[in-house]
Amino acid sequence: MRKSIATVSLSGPLSEKLTAIATAGFDGVEIFENDLLGGPLSPEEVRLRCADLGLGIDLYQPFRDFEAVPADVLARNLRRAERKFAVMERLGADLLLVCSSVAPESVDDDALAAEQLRLLADRAAEHGIRIAYEALAWGKHVSTYDHAWKIVEQADHPALGTCLDSFHILSRGSDPKGIADIPGEKIFFLQLADAPLMALDVLQWSRHYRCFPGQGGLDVAALVAATIGAGYEGPLSLEVFNDVFRQAGAASTAVDALRSLLLLEESAGLSALPAPAVPSGFAFAELTAADTEPLRGVLGALGFAHTARHNWKPVELWEQGEARILLNTGVSGRRQGPALTAIGVETSDPGRAVRRAEAVLAPVVPRRRGPRDAQLDAVAAPDGTEVFFCRTERPDHGGWIGDFTEVPSHALPREPQEPREPAATVHRIDHIALTQPWHQFDEASLFHRGVLGLKADDSLDLADPYGLVRSRAVASPDGGVRIVLNIAPSPDAEGPRLQHIALATDDIVGAARRVREQGTGLLPIPANYYDDLDARYELDPRHLATLADLGILYDRDENGEFLHCYTATIGRVFFELVQRTDGYRGYGAQNAAVRLAAQHLHQQGV
Questions:
Q1: In this structure, are residues 162 and 152 in contact, taking their beta carbons and an 8 Å threshold?
Q2: Exposure string (b/e) for 329-363, b if CB count within 10 Å is 16 or more?
Q3: pTM for the full predicted model
Q4: Which DSSP symbol is given to 423?
Q5: 556 φ, ψ to 5°?
Q6: 121 pLDDT band (50/70/90 cuts)?
Q7: Is pLDDT above 90 for 561?
Q8: What is the rounded CA–CA span in Å between residue 185 and residue 174?
Q9: Does residue 335 carry a pLDDT above 60?
Q10: Which of 85, 205, 209, 364 fits a 20 to 30 Å CA distance from 322?
């Protein structure tokens, strides 16, 4: 279907917005009046600019507070409308959005509203313009889509139809099934936005917290399906008021917007994208640093062994069980020390994973490849982290292990009765946690869901000593891949974006003791935490003392238990040891405030 977006959804001046919208691949645009009024381009110049970019002007908006008013006010409103029609003719726009009135002088009289809207449609038709009447969720007398349609139907004018807006409909809890009662040809326009579920005044909710479909908690797909089922044939158009989007770069926001529509079409059954190749686990996590010696020490203490080296790149492979860490010294200039720059995910069909990624606007990242290197493709997540599609044990597409050569020390023969290495206490990567740039949290959530086929948990607010950390986990259905997306309390407080790798073990006490015995300290946890833990769960005193001694945190849910502890932070990276029992599915969110406070104190040397 044709895809459009309102200019109010993006940051910057109108000319930059139009360029970003066209570059992303949209077909059309809604011109928001303030963008035109506040810019230097004349309506004729905007019209030419859109034509040069291949954009149609699908809607001009908004026209407010028109209907159900006294005669003197109506006269002024009609004069105002005539001026807008003149501007629209200069723009080449033929559809005007009229919002239901919030004016104090408007009256609760459907017949009067219909009569005056019919008069407006008569005037518009003389200019070749149509009117799309929309019910604002906070309209004074008309606040639901079915009420707006009733008035349009009563007015009975060919140039008057209705505009359906997913936020205005779903924020009030209205049932979109009633859309089936509206003839498709009378649905002149469809505006789409999602939003997180919030207990907030609907006007404030709308003005500040809308987001693109798939990034919130509203069932936008069902509304779209109902509208298309009614016979609507116009564009799918995004209208999003969001404080963060209007401060972020227009180019990346426009791509995120179009991706949301592609995924929305898929969810609503309107298109068929390549199915996601849902990953089954992590193939590796790659850490980049100019000096990897501190990381080598921590990995050794955690039980990892340096097993192989890349055939021609300065990359080391460290392994323990099925957990693999790559140390890359090929990128210099890391002012904030080591950083997690890439992850590999296991997939049975890397080629399909690539086709899916490209279909949802995540192109393959160009990379250097030696003549004998495996075909290993990656896409870039919004925060810059590269995501590789791997098939580790296969020599064909995705089989990357063949690019490494065993290091001599690891290649020495071993006698079965005298193992040279201790039994592995870490058996795989449990999850990866990435702190996102403050303006890309929603984009990152949609990316990982849309590209990788992961499912998102509810967003959480975690207490940090300097504010709230917003957090959302995305995971495969079986939990083989779990990624936790975090956002710092505010742009000013963001600082280095910390990342961490959580390693799964079946014996966290043994693993923690080995780390300490190797001389690598674990993050100290205040004694007050364990006093409170005892009050909440009445753990065995000896077990509680062991947890307190090693700095192990504890949580439980209806399924099982979760124990976890942390290393100190190196640059931007730290490690977490986790032990899940009996189907525990969370991440210890209840302990996040304690961990964050302990990390701040540790960094300050307290």
A1: yes
A2: beeeebeebbbbbbbbbbbebbbebbebbebbbbe
A3: 0.91
A4: P
A5: -150, 155
A6: very high
A7: yes
A8: 22
A9: no
A10: 364
